[in-house]
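Input (structure):
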């Protein structure tokens, strides 16, 4: 009981001195306790800061080591042996001093002075003004996007809003980087570069389409790196590639169609029966190989090229694969063969990975598969139909122009282009080598036209999509690399010219001068049927650019310019460019979407068509299927840690300043 009194308030109220002492002790104790806790928090904060600085230092050291080993330095083996072998180094392509048009000052570029700089025989009149008009169109499209949709995926010009159809990855910005650079729009390029560096995020809970993300985002970043030399683009490219790799975690290594960027979960949609899509699984190799070459990390190339090794197991004798392939068994799950949507770029990449690798024995499997597929295509899918009468009302290139010029396109010509000297066949010699070339000299007012049909369950479908127009350009590229590749260059060039003309008719026969999506062919000719909209697609002008580079026949520039004028007339609005709901109707109804590929592909190919051949020469650069140019680097036994290539120079791939 004597101790309990010390805990009773009444005891201290009767003794004030003891109350004071007790209060002092309690206050002092609380003060000391709080001070100790504060010190502990300071120590914890300091420790966290030290840890963060240490982690940052480790990351910087690791990144520098990767850069030294992968892109800018010599291999350790070379250093130990005292060798002077150079590895792949990126030096920015110098476009900043090339005048307003991006490739040369007025009167000093490749336009009016022609021949030696890629102007060729004809087609040079007003070429610089046309190139400048295309460049202005790029500026107009970019300005509208910058003002109303900055940071979003695509612009809706008519309603002055932006939309995220692509997970909010800033699609238009990334897709446009190289076009801005090539056209010399450096202020806009630098602005886009800053956004990519500071704002672009891949931490999205979004099911990304592996194919689209690879060709647009990864391809766009790699191309910006190859052109500018800025390592930031390579870092961001590696980030998105790492997000895509989980899609390949299947029993066969054949990727799913989609992968969630946040969780890494891959899946394929129900409409494919859970299978992968042929164009998707076969259109990652160019970008993944390029990434391995530039970083020195083989995992990207190994992952994507394993897919081709799986496909080789089921590759048919005619080289034609159906559009769906099982991710579980690696076997086809459909009987629909097409060079259009869902099939197209598989065949394109078989050739282009071979071109990318310098045509060495280490990429010969790709060329062999491509040759086999071309033989199958020309034997089983290439068809002919009566040519329609060319009675278009909106195209600036009339029937008599195409008729008289097509014979020029098919005459024997020799040209020293960027891919080396080549001889294109005369119509007589080409017809003797292949039945597919029999109508190469026919005008649009008579004869027959060639097209690439489809096969469903073994039956030919007499239909060709606008997407299939890429085949003409692919054939030109295959023919121009004949020295180490094909023995069928005359066949390829003859068919390329025929298909190029067919795709021109897609436009020329329309009331607006612009094509639809689908064309059917019958005994009475061809007609637009089914999907009649136009969304500013690039495949026709892409092929005409290749045909121009190979032949320098002015008809291809005429066709390209006619299409550009139709875009200007029907698709240009106050804040950008839009598509047409029905290209067969004049006046047409417009949609409200500026597709990113209009800036990335269509305008770029048009611009290159009116530029000198030594602007992105085709023996030094290869375009991915989104028109993003990648530097050609020969493959060797030490791939990807060593490169058999010369160091980059400032003038590499571009016309010299005059």
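Output (sequence):
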């Amino acid at each position: 009981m004597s101790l309990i009194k010390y805990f009773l308030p009444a005891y201290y109220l009767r003794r004030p001195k003891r109350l004071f002492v007790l209060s002092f002790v309690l206050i002092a104790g609380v003060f000391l306790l709080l001070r100790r806790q504060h010190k502990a928090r300071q120590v914890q904060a300091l420790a966290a800061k030290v840890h963060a600085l240490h982690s940052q230092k480790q990351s910087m050291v690791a990144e520098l080591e990767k850069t030294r080993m992968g892109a800018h330095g010599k291999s350790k083996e070379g250093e130990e042996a005292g060798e002077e072998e150079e590895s792949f180094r990126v030096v920015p392509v110098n476009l900043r001093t090339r005048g307003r048009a991006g490739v040369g000052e007025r009167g000093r570029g490749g336009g009016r002075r022609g021949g030696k700089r890629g102007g060729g025989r004809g087609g040079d009149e007003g070429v610089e003004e046309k190139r400048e008009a295309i460049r202005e169109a790029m500026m107009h499209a970019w300005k509208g996007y910058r003002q109303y949709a900055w940071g979003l995926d695509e612009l809706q010009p008519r309603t002055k809003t932006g939309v995220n159809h692509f997970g909010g990855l800033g699609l238009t910005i990334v897709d446009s980087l190289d076009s801005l650079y090539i056209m010399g729009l450096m202020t806009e390029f630098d602005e886009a570069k800053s956004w990519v560096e500071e704002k672009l995020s891949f931490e999205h809970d979004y099911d990304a389409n592996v194919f689209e993300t690879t060709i647009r985002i990864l391809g766009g970043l790699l191309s910006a790196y190859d052109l500018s030399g800025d390592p930031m683009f390579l870092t961001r490219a590696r980030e998105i590639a790492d997000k895509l790799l989980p899609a390949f975690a299947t029993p066969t290594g054949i990727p799913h169609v989609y992968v969630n960027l946040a969780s890494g979960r891959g899946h394929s949609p129900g409409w494919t029966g859970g299978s992968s899509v042929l164009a998707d699984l076969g259109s990652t190799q160019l970008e993944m190989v390029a990434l391995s070459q530039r970083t020195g990390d083989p995992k990207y190339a190994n992952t994507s090229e394993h897919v081709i090794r799986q496909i080789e197991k089921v590759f048919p004798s005619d080289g034609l694969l159906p559009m769906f392939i099982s991710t579980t068994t690696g076997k086809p799950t459909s009987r629909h063969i097409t060079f259009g949507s869902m099939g197209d770029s598989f065949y394109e990449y078989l050739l282009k990975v071979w071109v990318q690798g310098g045509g060495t024995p280490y990429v010969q499997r790709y060329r062999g598969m491509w040759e086999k597929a071309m033989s199958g295509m020309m034997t089983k899918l290439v068809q002919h139909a009566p040519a329609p009468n060319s009675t278009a009302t909106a195209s600036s290139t009339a029937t008599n122009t195409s008729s008289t010029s097509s014979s020029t396109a098919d005459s024997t010509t020799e040209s020293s282009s960027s891919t080396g000297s080549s001889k294109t066949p005369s119509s007589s010699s080409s017809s003797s080598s292949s039945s597919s070339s029999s109508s190469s000299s026919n005008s649009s007012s008579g004869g027959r036209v060639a097209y690439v049909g489809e096969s469903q369950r073994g039956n030919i479908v007499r239909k060709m999509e606008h997407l299939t127009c890429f085949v003409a350009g692919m054939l030109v590229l295959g023919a121009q690399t004949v020295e180490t590749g094909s023995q069928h260059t005359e066949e390829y060039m003859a068919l390329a010219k025929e298909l190029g003309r067919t795709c021109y008719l897609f436009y020329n026969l329309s009331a607006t001068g612009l094509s639809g999506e689908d064309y059917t062919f019958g005994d009475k000719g061809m007609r637009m049927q089914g999907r009649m909209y136009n969304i500013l697609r690039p495949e026709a002008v892409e092929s005409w650019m290749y045909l121009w580079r190979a032949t320098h026949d002015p008809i291809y520039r005429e066709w390209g310019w006619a299409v550009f004028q139709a875009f200007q007339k029907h698709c240009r609005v106050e804040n950008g460019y839009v598509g047409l709901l029905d290209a067969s109707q004049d006046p047409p109804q417009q949609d409200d979407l500026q597709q990113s590929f209009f800036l990335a592909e269509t305008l770029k190919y048009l611009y290159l068509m009116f530029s000198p051949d030594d602007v992105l020469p085709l023996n030094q650069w290869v375009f991915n299927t989104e028109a993003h140019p990648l530097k050609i680097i020969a493959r060797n036994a030490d791939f990807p840690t060593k490169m058999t290539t010369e160091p980059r120079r400032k003038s590499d791939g571009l016309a010299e300043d005059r």
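Notes: The two ends are 109 Å apart (CA to CA). The chain has two domains: 4-70, 89-631.
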